[in-house]
Fold this sequence. Notes:
Number of helices: 5
Number of domains: 2
Structural class: alpha+beta
Order of helices and strands: HEHEEEEEEHEEEEEEEEEEEHH
Helix content: 25-40%
Oligomer: single chain
Distance between the termini: 83 Å
Radius of gyration: 32 Å
CATH topology of the largest domain: Immunoglobulin-like
Amino acid sequence: MNRRYLIPLALAVLLLTSGCAGFFTGGPVSDEQLDEEPPSQYAWDNDVDAHITITENARFQAVYDLDDPSMELFRRDGFGGRNAIPVSAVRYRYPNGTIISGTELVARGGSVNRSRERVSVSLPDDAPSDGGGQLAFTSSSTPKRFSLPAFVNGSYAVVLPPNRRVAVFPFGQADPRGYEVETDGDQRIVRWESVEADAISVQFYLQRDLLIFGAAAAVLVVVGVGGGFYYKRRIDALRRQREELGLDVETDDEFGDDPPPGMG
């Protein structure tokens, strides 16, 4: 086969096989993931519809009040598609306060299934038909930035890791607008009374980040001023050398307003 056809054929096979793999990849989330211990106790007794705690190691713990017997968990990619988020330490709390693990949820008729595009969670058969209760899980985030679709409408609270801030733009900011920031010891809590947007995001920083940036900016200013002064001295020195060699000759004074010789 002509070599020029090999590369397009290989690319076509790769796209086809990756698409098939993505299509058929999926199934129930493993028992080990479902019953994994969360990094810390879930904040069941909160006063919001969605409570998210971001931990130091770029993970987060989420607790959602449910008004539907099922829920889909995903992130949007840059092309408008969806990608499933990794979930572990799944817990369900009944309206009466009883908490069950992820495997118990499945044993009671619920499900936690993962596909390439989403993680689909269905509540147990004995859960309220209109949803009700709370769903909690642990997942991964990115350092210094949290972003996730708004899976439920209503009030939100995002608890930042210790000593993180959102006060100084552009290092810190949150969307949608209309949020408030509360202080709880060395932690900041970003709150929305009502979120009807498609997603929420919080970008935050350490206090020392501002010091590092300020020091770097000061160094750049000093280097810029010093470089400008150095080049100015070099230009002045070159001008003096030209003057000493008689290269800078002013012709305007010699001829004044009269035309050059032979042109009068």
